[in-house]
Amino acid sequence: MDIAFATGNNGKITEAKKILECFKVHIIQKDIKLIEPRSDSLEKIAIEKAKQACEILKNPVIVEDSGLFIKSLNDFPGTYSHIIYDKISDSGILKLMQDVKNRSAIFMAVVAFASPKIEPITFNGEQKGTISFESKGSGGFGFDPIFIPGYETQTWAENPQLKAISSHRKIALEKFAEWAKDNI
Ligand code: IMP
After folding, report:
1. Whose CA is nearest to atom 5 of ligand 1?
2. Predicted pLDDT at 106
3. Distance from the CA of 67 to the center of ligand 1, in angstroms?
4. pLDDT band at 118; cut points 50, 70, 90
5. Does the 2-183 domain belong in CATH 1.10.1660.10?
6. How far is the CA of 130 from the centre of ligand 1 (A)?
7. What 3-state class would DSSP assign to 7?
8. Residue pLDDT, tens place only, 126-181
9. pLDDT tens, position by position, 67-104
10. Active-site residue flag, 65
11. For 42, which of 62, 110, 114, 146 could close a Cys bridge (C-beta 3.0–4.6 Å)?
12. Cα-to-centroid distance, 82 and ligand 1 (Å)
């Protein structure tokens, strides 16, 4: 099955292709301009962007909205992760957390599927972890060099295999693929 994925983020596409290939779902990237609404809800943002993408493409499409929610920073950068990464990147987050002992954080993703025939439907995934004290590794993208999943000791950027086994994106996309088998 072919499915359009509206995003300009090549990192998301590389991961999504690997995650979905064993479900025989083939991703076709659509790098189209979507207006991101302001909201504290990834789900609301994903639904709104999926509606826009479907309107533009006139075809079924998925979008994914994700973010890093850091407990001691009151869930910052959260739904603003994209813009914050562009402005201060992972080194800026480490500066904000210089003297912070509680390093707990969660990566969350919401995949929204929209089609001209049905209302958007969403699938979510999350991965708990901690923020490292220094930036480590060169794999992946975004905040991967400062995110240590679960009780591991390496960041996702140091050990991309940890991310391939379990990530917020993998969980959300696998839920979508299971649903798509019977519904698309
Ligand atoms: P958006 O989903 O396009 O709004 O962007 C979410 C932002 O969160 C990305 O630009 C990254 O900075 C960050 N992000 C989302 N998922 C990941 C991930 O798997 N690894 C590292 N950073 C991520």
Report:
1. 82
2. 98
3. 5
4. confident
5. no
6. 16
7. coil
8. 999 999 999 999 999 999 999 999 999 999 999 999 999 999 999 999 999 999 99
9. 999 999 999 999 999 999 999 999 999 999 999 999 99
10. yes
11. 110
12. 6
Report the alpha-carbon distance of residue 127 to residue 20 in Å, rounded. Answer: 18
The catalytic position among 65, 75, 86, 182 is 65
Place of tokens 């060169």: 138
Query: Residues near 132 by Cβ (< 8 Å), separated by ≥ 6?
Result: 94, 103, 145, 146, 147, 148, 155
Q: Residue 170 is encoded by which pair of tokens?
A: 């993998």
Peptide bond into 37 cis (omega under 30): no
* Residue ranges per structural domain of the chain: 2-183
List residues near ligand 1 (CB under 6 A). 9, 65-68, 81-82, 85, 107, 140-144, 167, 169
